[in-house]
Design goal:
single chain; 203 residues; alpha/beta; 4 strands
Length: 203
């Protein structure tokens, strides 16, 4: 399964999404990447995002940004973005991706709803995630309206902390929801070194 995080410049939010999800899914066959709707090709991660990743033991110095292409979007199985406008741009670029492109907050709530209502099916994390994607249009009326995760680019460090905390919280909700479904092959556990409020107290 290929999961891709997409923001605007691919230097602040989506790199953190990629690096956090990759960290949590170490040892699985899930491939995680990121891109930007207006990405700056080969640009390193924003220093503030890099500092936050370093604070939880995730190496980010080798990260380089990419600009989203139709081929990238078409080849993904799940695209997670951060703003409603980004979703519009993604599905305009790659119309077929509308079926599997979600705001990160929205998909986390979908996973949580499906887990609480025993609607998740499958034995592997890939199958369980796909089961939520397939049910997404049906459960949309039952979950909260999606919320953007604001772009911290060019803003104070505290805004990067907020974006990191919201991103990490949503990812953990997704993975915890996958574990709530009893299956032969459990989803990986979230590392204790990255709790829900990992970034809240940084200054």
């Amino acid at each position: 399964m290929r999961i891709m995080f997409v923001c605007t410049g691919n230097i602040c939010r989506s790199p953190m999404g990629e690096l956090l999800m990759s960290h949590y899914l170490t040892g699985t066959t899930v491939q995680v990447s990121s891109a930007g709707t207006r990405g700056l090709p080969m640009h390193p991660i924003d220093p503030s995002s890099g500092r936050l990743m370093q604070s939880v033991g995730i190496e980010s110095s080798g990260f380089r940004s990419r600009r989203l292409t139709r081929q990238m979007a078409d080849e993904a199985d799940l695209i997670l973005c951060f703003e409603k406008q980004q979703r519009k741009e993604i599905v305009t670029l790659a119309p077929a991706a509308v079926r599997y492109t979600f705001l990160l907050d929205d998909f986390a709530n979908m996973c949580d709803y499906c887990a609480r209502n025993n609607m998740i099916a499958g034995l592997t994390i890939q199958e369980r995630l796909q089961s939520v994607i397939k049910k997404s249009s049906m459960i949309r009326p039952m979950i909260p309206q999606p919320k953007d995760i604001a772009d911290p680019h060019g803003r104070e460090f505290s805004m990067f902390c907020v974006a990191a905390e919201q991103t990490n919280g949503a990812i953990r909700k997704i993975l915890k929801s996958m574990r709530k479904h009893r299956a032969v092959t459990p989803a990986p556990s979230a590392p204790k070194s990255l709790p829900d409020n990992s970034f809240r107290s940084m200054d």
